[in-house]
Write a structure and sequence with these properties.
alpha+beta; Dna Ligase, domain 1; 2 domains; 15 helices; binds adenosine-5'-triphosphate; binds magnesium ion
């Protein structure tokens, strides 16, 4: 069975000279507009290099795009409810906690903060729901009755911490618009949807700041030791600085927070003499970002404070793979959303998600995956890419863990098979012109939600990003050098 294919936005291949010339122009455009990252091999703070990008926007069906945009506020609210359901989080995570130290440490912080009473009832959620078109279709052998090369889209996962590409998403549209204009295809720009992810996400931060309501307070970005994805982070700072010159932004690692930030007797987080209004985590989602007990201590200190956190610790727990899997179990969406039409719409975006807990249903899932490992992805409770297992590795890991409680730290997910599209990926240091390759895309829809357990102050969709990778690659992290920046070219199908 050959994989379904979507037509590219203009006929390919491009003529050699045209391709070389437009790639050279595009690289310079990239460097001059922040389509960049820091070089991992030759790191210096004095230079950025181009981030990998797809030369032309990748096709995406308009109806499916619209559906994803419209669904986002519903997903935001669902996540908000999940994050505030103590019993559900506790029950869902309990088996994974016994075998996954990282999630257990996060959970312990949540329990401590909850037991002493949350100093700040408001949370800021800046979420990103990642989705892929599914080319296999249950309706007919291979193709939908619509005879389109996709059936619908399915959710890969929803991110609740450090959901990046608020800048790189929109700027991908801008660079590809420039490229299409240089190719004499300006009339195609109308198929590229506007993308206000950067301003949408930043206004989430400033709205939370205003709700905090302390004049002269500051915003704290929690950052990694070295930020390779520096453009994406800095453009958030530039945007806030432009719109709200009254707001100062600090960047600190967890280690620096341990050393420099204090809690006063009102549980305000004080940094450099200023009260911290909003804490925005761009780090803190993987074990390596907590190398010692100091970083865990810093995290606890922040969570205990009155600052509005993005995300608060319970929001981070709500974004775990285990929670996503639990939401797909029968009756669970209904518990959070009732039995209305919205529940059905959310259920439709789930692909097969299975628990690997040490019980009968976990056993069935293990058997099912061992029988056809290629159909599945095995996922631990991790963020940041590069942790999932695919194909033969799924089989090997399950054979190894089958009789061990360790398997409860993972979930099993059906693999989505998106349609292919041909395209050129421009990479730093690679030969020009790039080869024409088969690619697949993953769309991320941003959402912003601010609220307490009982009151929602704002809930909206906030732009999008598209990442594209080689069709035979398992994962597509752009910062990891696997995926490439892209933007959708909407098709009426
Ligand atoms: N069910 C699936 N079918 C196909 N591909 C998948 C599936 N799940 C994950 N992937 C691929 O693996 C990548 C990483 O998966 P996932 O987003 O679940 O992990 P993560 O570590 O949380 O990554 P991120 O840092 O992007 O949040 C996805 O971007 C996608 O390319
Ligand atoms: Mg993730």
């Amino acid at each position: 069975m050959s994989q379904a294919r979507l037509a590219s936005c203009i006929p390919l291949p491009l003529e050699h000279r045209t391709l070389v010339s437009v790639v050279e122009k595009a690289k310079d455009w990239a460097l001059m507009h922040g389509v960049g990252m820091r070089d991992r091999k030759h790191f210096t703070k004095d230079a950025i290099q181009i981030a990998p990008f797809v030369l032309l926007p990748s096709p995406f069906p308009k109806t499916e795009f619209t559906k994803a945009i419209e669904l986002q506020p519903i997903l935001n609210e669902l996540m908000h409810k999940v994050a505030h359901d103590d019993e559900f989080l506790t029950n869902t995570l309990q088996n994974a906690l016994q075998v996954d130290e990282f999630t257990a440490n996060l959970f312990d912080i949540w329990v401590k903060v909850r037991d002493e009473g949350m100093a700040q009832p408001i949370s800021l959620g800046m979420l990103r729901s990642d989705i892929m078109l599914e080319s296999r279709c249950p309706h007919t052998e291979n193709q939908c009755a619509k005879h389109t090369p996709y059936c619908s889209w399915k959710q890969v996962e929803i991110n609740s911490i450090a959901s990046g590409f608020g800048h790189l998403g929109p700027v991908s549209r801008e660079i590809q618009s420039y490229i299409l204009r240089q190719l004499g295809q300006a009339e195609l720009l109308k198929n590229m949807p506007e993308n206000r992810a950067l301003s949408g996400l930043c206004s989430g931060i400033t709205e939370a700041y205003d709700l905090f309501g302390v004049p002269g307070s500051v915003v704290l970005f929690v950052v990694e030791e070295v930020s390779y994805n520096i453009c994406d982070q800095r453009f958030h700072e530039f945007e806030i600085s432009e719109k709200r010159p009254d707001i100062m932004i600090y960047r600190r690692t967890l280690t620096e927070i341990y050393e420099e930030a204090t809690l006063n007797d009102k549980k305000q987080l004080i940094l450099d003499g200023h009260t911290v209004a909003v804490v925005y985590y761009r780090s803190g989602y993987e074990p390596a970002q907590y190398p010692t007990a100091k970083e865990w201590d810093a995290r606890l200190r922040v969570e205990r404070s009155t600052s509005i956190k993005c995300p608060s610790i319970h929001y981070q727990l709500a974004g775990t793979k285990k929670v996503q899997q639990a939401l797909a179990a029968p009756g669970v969406l209904e518990k959070f959303m009732g039995a209305g039409a919205a529940t059905g719409r959310v259920r439709d975006i789930f692909t097969g998600l299975y628990s690997l807990d040490f019980d009968e249903s976990g056993e069935r899932a293990v058997d099912m995956a061992l029988a056809d490992a290629e159909r599945f992805v095995l996922k631990p409770q991790r963020e940041g890419g590069g942790n999932n297992l695919y194909g033969a590795d799924v089989r090997e890991a399950l054979l190894r863990m089958r009789h061990s409680r360790e398997r409860a730290a993972y979930i099993l997910m059906e693999r989505i098979l998106p349609p292919l599209v041909s395209g050129y990926v421009v990479r730093p240091g690679a030969a020009v012109p790039p080869p024409l390759t088969d690619l697949v895309s993953e769309l991320g829809i941003f959402g912003v939600i601010i609220g307490t357990k009982d009151k929602i102050y704002c809930n909206r969709q906030a732009g999008h990003m598209l990442r594209t990778k080689l069709a035979d690659a398992n994962e597509g992290g752009v910062a990891a050098g696997l995926g490439a920046l892209d933007s959708p070219f909407l098709l009426d199908m």
